[in-house]
Every structure is written in structure tokens, then in C-alpha cells.
Predict the structure.
Amino acid sequence: PDVLVGEDEFVEFELYGEDAKADWGRQVPKGTGLVRLGDYRREFVVVVRLELHCLTRLVWAINDPSAPKSTLKHSGHCLIYIRHRVLCDADLTLEIFDPLELELDSSEGAKEATPPHVCKAWTKMLEELRDDLERWENSDDNLFNQREHWYVLHKNPIRESDDTIDVVAK
């Protein structure tokens, strides 16, 4: 469902430093963001999870360009992916533009000029992803929640990262 969201309902995240990496990492749902549907539990990824992952990876690249997660190829892919999603889901809400207002030290004036936006109920979506992951982790159908199965199938060691499980090539 859609919800009306005002500008003041979004939490500000840091852009630089360790706090930034932690802030942005917390918004990415635990696990892979997959949902499992139907009798055969076919897996689908929710697009917003990919978008959040890409934003988080770009923040990592800004803060630690030499980190393995910050590869130029991955960052470039993420930037292109986010651009595509922004254009695909273009928000056509009109906002008042006043260059003088942008110069204010306080954001109070800017908040008054920003109309509410109609957003998807993304907090509900995050809850559903968490619930689905928990059901899957506790399911008798799930062979992949046990690391030894993943290791045997891929013949690679597994390393936990802060927002996903990465398979590390030998």
C-alpha cells in the first residue's frame, strides 16, 4: 500500500566515517532480501533491497575506496542500477524551488516548502522480508541455512559481510 510521507519522517544518515557505514548498513534487510513463494519456494529478490544494498555500497566506496566491497566495477554497477530505478519510478511531485531557501542555516524553512510524497509502505516491506527470512531459516525445506551445505555445493569458504554473505573464491 501507498502511504503519505512527510520529509521529517525520514531519518538522516551520516555520509562519512564509521557511523555512516553503520547507519546505511542497518537499512539493508538481514539476509539476501529473497522471498520464497509457491509450493516449490521459488526465490525472488525484492528490488528495493537491491537499491538499499547499492546505496550502502556507494557509501562504503566514499568512505573506504580501497575496501574489497568498494570495487569500481561494483560501485559503477550500483550507480547505473540506482539511476535506472529512479527514472523508472520517477516521482513527479512538484516542490517549490527557492534558491534563497537553500542557503538557510536551519532546515525549518525548507521543510515547510517540501510537500509530502506518496511512498510505498517500505517499513512494512522490511518487516515482511525479516519475517519471511525467519520462516525460511526455520523451515524444513531450507537446506541452505546450514553453512556446510553451501560450502559443499560451491566448494568455497564463506565469509560474513555486514549486509550479505559473500562466497570467497579460493
